[in-house]
Design brief:
Largest sheet: none
Number of strands: 0
Order of helices and strands: HH
Radius of gyration: 47 Å
Number of helices: 2
Length: 116
């Protein structure tokens, strides 16, 4: 069949193409025999997964907004706490300083000898 010469390469190409076409026909027939139910099931699964993904995405967005709100509220509370602590410290420091001055000056007055 296959001889030596210029026609041998054409014959090899012919047989290779014929074999390829035969394989493709068998693939086509197996696809035609296959049921479309699994494909519809996969399509339904994809639709369900997309819906679940949308729900998860919206939940994440709500959580991100809640986190930002919580950050702002925490910053406000912390600022308010720092302010009130500072006011308390200044107030207690003021009372302490007044007492110290009073004590110091009262001792000076008592300790000072009277001049005749």
């Amino acid at each position: 069949m296959l001889g030596i010469g210029p026609h041998s390469s054409l014959l090899r190409l012919y047989y290779a193409v014929r074999k390829y076409i035969k394989n493709q026909k068998s693939v086509r027939e197996s696809i035609a025999r296959m049921s479309s139910k699994p494909l519809f099931r996969i399509q339904d699964d994809i639709i369900n997964h997309r819906q679940q993904l949308l729900l998860i995405t919206s939940g994440l967005q709500r959580n991100a907004v809640a986190i930002e709100k919580l950050k702002k509220e925490t910053a406000q509370v912390l600022f308010s706490f720092q302010t009130s602590t500072s006011v308390y410290k200044v107030k207690s420091l003021t009372v302490s300083i007044i007492y110290q001055h009073y004590y110091y000056y009262s001792r000076l007055y008592v300790a000072k000898p009277s001049v005749p």
